[in-house]
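Hey,

The postdoc asked me to send both predictions to you directly instead of through the lab channel. I've kept everything plain text so nothing gets mangled by the mail client. Protein one:
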Amino acid sequence: MKRILTLLSLPLLLSLVSFFAIDQAREKADAEAITKVVTDYTRAFYEAKPELLKTALHKDLSKFGFYRPAGAADYSPMPMTYDQALALAAELNKEGALGDNLTQKVTILDQLDKTAAVKLEAAWGFDYIHLGKFDGQWKMLQVIWQSHPK
């Protein structure tokens, strides 16, 4: 009887192991895709290549920032749409306005099969990004950011 139970439970065990391996592979592939989207977003601004944003951003992007101009004591609000982000990417660092410290640190805070939350540390400050998976492609849907604090 023990032998029969063992033989019957073996396919179930193999199925579970296979399921978890496939799930881990999907999670890893999604994490790589999420990181690439955020990296392309950053590169678009650093390299003045707005075409990179066309694959990284969802058309319904909602971006809001707290920007502090050089020498200013207070932050200024800076809402932005998809089209405004494309325009800014084309101009922001065209003349090297961001300087030489073009850092980029992408941290995935949470990741599910259709949504993810990411923190980006960049030359301009910190972005908190929500992404969604649309038709198999990760897209940035919401961004809230601020300039570096004093």
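Protein two:
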Amino acid sequence: MRKTDPGRAPGADPGTGADPGTGADLIDLRDGDSSFRLRVLGRRMPGVLHLHDRLDAEVLVVSSFVTGRLPVSLLPSDLDEWGRALDVLASGREVAWLEDGSPGIRVRPFDEVHGTPTVLVEDLGRSCVSVLLPLALGAGWIDEQRRLLAQVRRTWPSEVHRPAPGVHEWRR
């Protein structure tokens, strides 16, 4: 038996600014000229056991040269991987995230050519377009991404347990 209404994001925190009806940023990297955002829109199919924890999202890229939007589907494991990627970025190393899907995202904490962090978005599976964004980010940008990840996890917590491959059950 479900403890929550399947149409409502359980655990939503009104104090975080995340609105399950309009979404919440998982990633928000921007400077005065360009931005890279990954916005979580909500659950794919709330209340449908095997799809309940899958999140619909979109990549939003804006610069003076290009503007684009790509749909993305995220699993709880993708959120876990993003958390580990933030730890790698904090150590000064480049990360690749969502490599198995489209789009692929690479973040370099410092790019010597540009003198700033960079984000590379590659949509090789659909549009065959890649965009590299150098972003002049302020101190603390990695900690801000950690805060956004925690906000998304509070707004859409994992409510489905997979005790074995192909077996799904509600967490109690």
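Summary for protein two, as requested: Confidence is low (pLDDT under 50) at residues 1-17.

Thanks,
C.
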